[in-house]
Write the structure tokens for this entry.
Amino acid sequence: MEERSDGFTTTGCTWLWPLSDLTGVPLDQVNFIICQAVGLAAAFWFRRSLRPQRVSPALRHAVTTFLGVSFVIFCFGWYASHIFILTLGCYIILCKASVHNVHWYSMVVAVGYLTACQISRVFIFSYGILSTDFSGPLMMITQKITTLAFQVHDGMCRKQEELTPEQRRLTVATRPSLLEYLSYNLNFMSILVGPCSNYKDYIEFIEGRHVQSKLRRLQEGSPEQNGWDALSEPSPVRAVCQKLLVCVGCMFWFFAITKSFPTTYAVDPEFLSQASFLRKLVYGFIAIQAARPKFYFAWTLSDAVHNAAGYGISGVDEKGQVSWDLVSNIRIWEIETATSFKAFIDNWNIQTGVWLKSVCYDRVPYYRTPLTFVLSALWHGVYPGYYFTFLTGIPVTLAARAVRRNFRQYFLGSPTVKFAYDVVTWLATHLAICYTVVPFTLLAMEPTLEYYRSVYFYVHIISILAIILLPSKPRSSKPEKHAQHFNNNVKGD
């Protein structure tokens, strides 16, 4: 029998080769989708059969951990050992290190181990990037490990008055048990693709206090509670069904559009030699637009799995409807209609932005933006394409801000003019986004430079000219809030 040429498309179980061959979807992606589908069914079962009122928190922790461990072994085979080594190693640090330094030790070890694995990944996969290679869960585990370590440090070392209101709400006053730690890091809902959630929120969910905690709010201007927490537990079925419909749409888009417009074709020698500048722009625009739904699919499906288990309530909206977006990682409509670079990144990979802000930007006394950028770059990996994307994003962000400061006010006089301005800024934003993230998909330096040369570095040139030529207006006397400054400057992919 002839050896399969695609034998390295997964590091995990090969039982589903027939399904991969039938659908034309790479085996690693088939394994991921099947695990998430099983996870969705398990989440409904978990919510119905293992309610906190029926079983102990220990059993709920054990089940979520067992399922999560099974998923990573199925998807990654022996490479899953890296995930277990990092998790157990950092638990030892959490237990043994001084609370004064536990957060920094955890950060150095987690990010260092992740970086070492990212470097090995370059050689293992020879610049290939598997949709579910083992570094993905390691990235999620790194976020969780460092988030918890900082929250333990806040709860056991720092004074309450030194903390921000959000840090004060999320403090962890005791070190977690091994079972709690494993459950938080390895639970089946988030092990494959995340997102990271806060330890306190997760423990409240396991112990059955999540709904009441999130729905309990003070009435405006009154010490009385709003009464929402006294209601029966809301059903997640509607929220899950809505998110699954999004997933179906994304899957249809993948088969109909994405596979027809691979990003790598943008640097195909024949295409580069024959295509006009305008055609290159249009193809890059379509290819990146077409590539986004696979991220929408993965993150939305993970969100649905969390909700199916009863986890993910963030509160009640102004219409009195329960919001199931606590662990949502994207806002698709806001992304697709974004009219500024900032609006786009504010709604993309939301929980990673929250993590970067909570463990770095809000913590360091100096050079907040550069250090947060460095952490984001290290977390993503060592491929040159990632750094091209991050470095390109800096002048694009500054240029977009300069253009907005100098011109936006002239287009607010009438709805028609404002609409025309929004259309132009939408197109400019998405062209800039496509230009910026092409290296992220190409990974290597040579094809990245080939692509940028083929379009004459036009976004770099326009951005630098805008920064140099457009006048900067005087700063407002009102001090800029850290959170706003963070969102304007740095956010992970």
Observations:
- The beta strands are 315-316, 322-323.
- Residues 412 and 418 are 5 Å apart (CA to CA).
- The longest helix spans residues 277-308.
